[in-house]
């Protein structure tokens, strides 16, 4: 199933996933009750978890874990 990511670094990305949560580049997105229509398809919206992707004090090497 294709889903739309909202918020965070993956905002606007359409990815393959499903279930309660989707991981995109190690960032967590949780299912919502929202749907959107894009390119002729209805997509479930997944919203970024605000406690994901916080910096881990590694300067330019900070990444989501």
Give structural notes:
This protein has 65 residues and is mainly beta. It has one domain. It is 0% helix and 49% strand. Strand 4 and strand 5 form a beta hairpin. About 9% of the residues have low confidence.
Helix proportion range: under 10%
- Measured by DSSP, the beta-strand proportion falls in over 45%
The low-confidence parts are 57-62
Largest sheet: 5 strands, mixed
Biggest sheet: strand arrangement = 2-1-5-4-3
Characterize the overall form: globular
Order of helices and strands: EEEEE
User: How many distinct domains?
Assistant: 1
Number of helices: 0
**End-to-end Cα distance:** 24 Å
Gyration radius, to the nearest Å?
A: 13 Å
According to DSSP, the number of beta strands is 5
Structural classification: mainly beta
Task: Give the mean pLDDT.
Answer: 83
């Amino acid at each position: 199933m294709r889903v739309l990511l909202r918020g965070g670094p993956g905002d606007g990305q359409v990815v393959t996933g499903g279930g309660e949560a989707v991981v995109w580049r190690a960032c967590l997105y949780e299912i919502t009750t929202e749907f959107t229509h894009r390119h002729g398809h209805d997509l479930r919206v997944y919203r970024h978890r605000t406690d994901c992707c916080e910096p881990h004090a590694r300067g330019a090497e900070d990444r989501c874990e």
